[in-house]
Amino acid sequence: MNRLLTSCFGLGWLPVAPGTWGSLPPTVAFGLLCHLDAKGVLISAVMAALALAGSAVCVVSAPAVIASSGKNDPREVVADELAGQAVTFLAVPLFGVECFSVGHAWLVAGVGFLLFRVFDIAKPWPIGKLERLPRGWGILADDIAAGICAAMGLLIFVRLLITA
User: pLDDT (tens digit, 9 = 90+) per residue, 51-82?
Assistant: First the structure.
């Protein structure tokens, strides 16, 4: 059960770029909610729920997967990407998601996805240092930090998009 949860129901078992697959559910949810013109509070609530669920899974279930695999950050564990990607989109509704057109929904989702993946893969200082935390915390913390950095970039992008 731990492996199923930490892999986001098998996304982490896909052979190529499992972290990228783990980032897709929040991206698709955000894009769909924006496309459907959902209220900002609903979008934020969904992103918060995904971030909390992914975080809880990492902290509670990842230590068992770490122990069974013998790796500090097993590739199959992608609940951290789910949480971090959701953090990327969490603040956007609070800063004007309802101000851009429905036609821009997928553009904003795509830019948020790319920003998170860049920060998650590159792990600029101090993001990379967070991986040293013990057990599931180390798996999770760098992705939450990457999500925060990506959120700042996405907020700038949304502001530029709105004012352009």
Answer: 999 999 999 999 999 889 888 778 889 999 99
- Residue 46: HSE in the Cβ half-sphere, 13 Å Cα cutoff: 18
- Residue with tokens 């950095």, as numbered in its chain: 149
Give the tens place of pLDDT for each residue, 6-37.
899 989 999 899 889 999 999 999 999 988 88
- Say if residues 105 and 31 touch (Cβ distance below 8 Å): yes
**Residue 110 belongs to domain spanning:** 2-10+17-163
What whole-number distance in Å separates Cα of residue 52 and Cα of residue 47? 9
Please give the structure tokens belonging to residue 113. Answer: 């996805």
CB 44 within 8 A of CB 93: yes
Domain count within the chain: 1
CB 108 within 8 A of CB 150: no
* Contact (CB, 8 A) for 154 and 93: no
pTM given for the model: 0.93
Task: Name the 3-class secondary structure at 78.
Answer: coil
Helix (H) or strand (E) holding 162: helix 135-163
H or E segment to which residue 33 belongs: helix 18-35
Average pLDDT of the segment spanning 37-50: 93
pLDDT recorded at residue 71: 83
